[in-house]
Amino acid sequence: MFRLPAFPGLMRPILLVLLALAALIPAAPMPILAQDNPSGLKLPRFVSTRSSPINVRVGPGTRYEIAWNFLVPGVPVEIIQEFDTWRKIRDFDGDEGWVHQSLLAGTRVGYAVPLLANGEVEMRVNGSSEAPVRARLAGGVRVSVSECDGAWCRVSASQSGESGTYSGWVSQEEIWGVYPDEVFD
């Protein structure tokens, strides 16, 4: 048992009250050391597939069944969750599955997603709706994204069946693979 030394007069009751009050004060919470995501990077975020083929699994590990495969590299995907070295991704169609982090790259790519009924995305000379049109991209064309200013993204793309690469600016809302108002370079 805890014994207090002898204190004269009122000192002993005051000390007892202070000890009782200190016992009622909860301990300060410990800071949370673990992060919500092992990489420390923001979630969700867009990346691309690094190689092919890539097995997309139903859970975070090689013991989980394969849900589907990516057969070509450079496909844009969205990381929506992390567990250890595994990343839960979502593809353009909204399908979700788990991929090992080594199979993903930080390279930004996207798909042209037309907003107008004509099914084309206009690539312009600069980031302005008044700028001349450099090329018209069909819906679903993969574009490499080098920067976005919140409204326009600088991209490069190759049309299937055509030689050469086109570079220019596309309205940010017409690209799946970047977030609205996202800014990066």
Question: How would you describe the overall organization of this protein?
Answer:
By secondary structure, the protein is mostly beta strands. It is 8% helix and 39% strand. The protein contains one helix and 15 strands, in the order αβββββββββββββββ. Strands 8, 11, 12, 13, 14 and 15 form a six-stranded antiparallel beta sheet that branches. Strands 6-5-4-1-7 form a five-stranded antiparallel beta sheet, with no helix packed on it. The longest helix has 14 residues. The radius of gyration is 28 Å and the shape is elongated.
What's the layout of helices and strands?
Blueprint: H1 11-24, E1 45-49, E2 54-57, E3 66-70, E4 76-83, E5 86-90, E6 96-100, E7 104-105, E8 109-112, E9 120-124, E10 133-138, E11 142-149, E12 152-157, E13 166-171, E14 175-176, E15 183-184
Antiparallel strand pairs: 1-4, 1-7, 2-3, 4-5, 5-6, 8-11, 8-14, 9-10, 11-12, 11-15, 12-13
Strand content: 35-45%
Mean pLDDT: 86
- Structure class: mainly beta
Which word captures the global form? elongated
**What's the N-to-C terminus distance?**
66 Å
* Total helical segments: 1
C-alpha-based Rg, rounded: 28 Å
Helix content: under 10%
Helices and strands, in N-to-C order? HEEEEEEEEEEEEEEE
Major sheet description = 6 strands, antiparallel
Poorly predicted sequence stretches spanning 5 or more consecutive residues: 26-34
Beta strands, count: 15
